[in-house]
Specification:
- It is a single chain.
- The termini are far apart.
- The protein is globular.
- Helices cover 13% and strands 34% of the residues.
- The protein is built from two helices and eight strands; from the N terminus they run αββαββββββ.
- The protein has helices at residues 5-20, 42-46; strands at 23-30, 36-40, 51-58, 63-68, 83-84, 105-113, 123-132, 138-143.
- By secondary structure, the chain is mainly beta.
- Strands 1, 2, 3, 4, 5, 6, 7 and 8 form an eight-stranded mixed sheet that branches.
- A hairpin with a 5-residue loop joins strand 1 (23-30) and strand 2 (36-40).
Amino acid sequence: MRFPPLLCVLCILVPAADAAARIGAAEVREGPRGGPCFTISPREDREGTPDFHSVTVSDGQRPLWKMTMPPERTFPLRFSMCVPYGGQVASLPRTRAATLEPGKVYYLRIEARPGKLRGTVQAYEARFCLAKQRDGSAAVHQIWDGERPGKRLFGCLPPE
């Protein structure tokens, strides 16, 4: 099938525009009151501070918690800041947080509005779990890109 020359030019340009946007790296760490806390990676912070829009945690099939900033309010999201799971800010729109279970993989997505000095990154993603410990407790554990599940499910299950 032949396309008219103008249509072929458009076919080439549309994927290029999508390729310019990229997904940045989020970071998951233990929050000050325990449980997971979410932010952007130090590398992303050095590249420019995005304005926070929303954070969503899912199990890969359904959202477990979401918090969104209203359009008229925002704040610059820095690595030094951390948004706790379940949202501690009563004035922000959010869903009720489902209980996170140890030994399961969860998915984080932070949506951003371009801030000053900010380029093409509009979202940041990471995977994490509450890693089961030998004593029965759980610790926040980030699953890094390139890690393979293995017998311990990315380190989310206790050693045998």
